[in-house]
Amino acid sequence: MVWLRVVLAPALLLGVLWVVDLEGVGRQLRGADPGWITVALAFSVAANFVSAWRWRSLVHWLGHRAALSRVFSLYLQGMALSSLLPGAMVGGDLYRAVGLRRDGAGTWPAGASVLLDRLSGLWMLWVLSAGAAAWAWTSGAQEALVNVGMAGQGRWLPLAMALFLLVVPITIICAGRWLPNQGRLSKLTGLMTRRGITAEFCRQVLGSAIVQLLSVAALACGGKALGLDVPFWVYVVTAAPIFLMAALPVSFGGWGTREAAAVVSLAPFGVAAPSAVAVALLYGIVALPQAMVGLVLLVMHRRREPFGSA
């Protein structure tokens, strides 16, 4: 229920801050280095720009031509709605699909582009997380990884996970060529056999890898701003649960769920709870200016085209 989310979303964030020592979090934020925060903002902007490029690539592949400036504008407007409405990124994603539909894209291509765009990012996030864990094990970080439940598995568990995640979409694409192209499966099989799917898959791999590494860099800059001495690979490993929890449709823009996940994920690597919460808060804070730009674009669009008009 929407009203329940409206109540629970801020309560969740306040609860996390209260449990982990609100005063301690405040001290961390007051002492944050503005220079590193600025760098984090730059990485965040770059990540969202590449995200818009990745989405545009999908839109073009699905048959709708759209300018990058228009797609980036819709992306920022979606960010604004995700930050203002309960439901995290769900509301913003729905708005993006509707925006494409109003621009002339078909209902199926518009919705499929947003869904595939979101899945592409989440998939690559877990690939990088598992790959970073495997690499860290071979680089002498066994003790830290044992603390997160990898005892006795060595580097093979995360390496196997990374390879499995890489193989899954390739297997699905190949299997689609033998699925019956009829009934409810027709659109799905048509998607997997669409011309240029191999090239588009490669573009999604590249774009999603860049997006996630830039996003992790923004998260790591938040840690640098607080003076934390944490290796970059730790942020890559922990970004998967942190970003995934932020995407759950139970909060405003991931506030609260992201901070709770940061506490749990960073604790095994020696990061105190107030510092972990402060890192997650800084990551959310650097996204706010972009959301505000998106809000301005949204208001301007609504003035030109009132809600409900064709």
UniProtKB/TrEMBL annotation:
The lineage of its organism: Bacteria, Pseudomonadati, Pseudomonadota, Betaproteobacteria, Burkholderiales. Coiled coil: none annotated. It is found in: Cell membrane. This is Lysylphosphatidylglycerol synthase-like protein. It comes from the Bacteria. The chain crosses the membrane at residues 6-24, 36-55, 119-137, 157-180, 201-220, 232-253, 260-277. Keywords: Cell membrane, Membrane, Transmembrane, Transmembrane helix. Pfam families: LPG_synthase_TM (PF03706). It is a multi-pass membrane protein. InterPro entries: L-PG_synthase/AglD.
